[in-house]
Amino acid sequence: MNYIFFDLDQTLYTDETGLFAEVGARIERWTAQNLGLSPDKAKVLRHHYFVNYGTMMRGLVLHHPEVNADDYLEYVHDIDVRRYIAPNPALDAMLSRLDVAKVIFTNSITDWAERILRQLGVRHHFKHIIDVRAVDYQSKPHPHAFERALEILGTPASACVMVDDQVSYLRGAVAAGMRAVLVRPGAEAVDGIECAVETILDVEPILQQWLVER
């Protein structure tokens, strides 16, 4: 195993304090203002694009070339994450015990990932942050996103594991040739996803076993 790819939002941390609600509200506000939609129609469009493309942003790039994707990304991530996220010493310790290079692979932007990781107290564990801009604005689970991420690292997919909370994103990882672990309460392993765990801390025994096998 050369790399473990970790998703960020809802994987390394979960939100019980309202951060994702604020992000969602900003997505819908930007959409309504820039596409001239009512709040209700902006909400419906957000859901439609997430289901069909993995992110709102990808739907905007495909169907609304007149809008500025970077303006959208900056606006929806312009949040003080310190109000929502606390350091996680248990996560820090767990990552320390995983003797392998670690990468953040996120559909958000690098600045957002940097702020989240610093607030969690785990930034030093990650060799790379691969964001949506680095993969040419092709969100997970699009095949190009995985192809580009692997190209950036110069590694074969077979030497990598993806840890994520979204089944569709993990299907993309499996299709690319990676092993996959789903992190979500009550989830079950399906469609080539080898393992499912309740929380990010539960992933350690699986990854340690795979490291032994490498």
What attributes does this structure have?
214 residues; 6 strands; six-stranded parallel β-sheet; Rossmann fold; alpha/beta; 9 helices; 2 domains; DNA polymerase, domain 1; 13% strand
Question: How would you describe this protein?
Answer:
With about 210 residues, the protein is of the alpha/beta class. The chain has two domains: about 5-15 and about 85-214, Rossmann fold (3-Layer(aba) Sandwich), CATH 3.40.50; about 20-75, DNA polymerase, domain 1. Helix content is about 45%, strand content about 15%. It contains nine helices and six strands; from the N terminus they run βαααααβαβαβαββα. It has helices at about 20-35, 40-55, 55-65, 70-75, 90-95, 110-120, 145-155, 165-175, 205-214; strands spanning about 5, 100-105, 125-130, 160-165, 180-185, 195. The chain has a six-stranded parallel β-sheet with strand order 3-2-1-4-5-6, with helices on both faces. Helix 1 crosses helix 2 and helix 2 (about 40-55) packs across helix 3 (about 55-65). The protein starts with a strand and ends with a helix. The mean pLDDT is about 95.
Write the layout of secondary structure elements.
Elements: E1 3-6, H1 19-35, H2 39-53, H3 56-63, H4 69-76, H5 89-97, E2 101-105, H6 110-120, E3 126-130, H7 143-153, E4 160-164, H8 167-176, E5 179-183, E6 195-197, H9 204-213
Helix pairs in contact: 1-2, 2-3
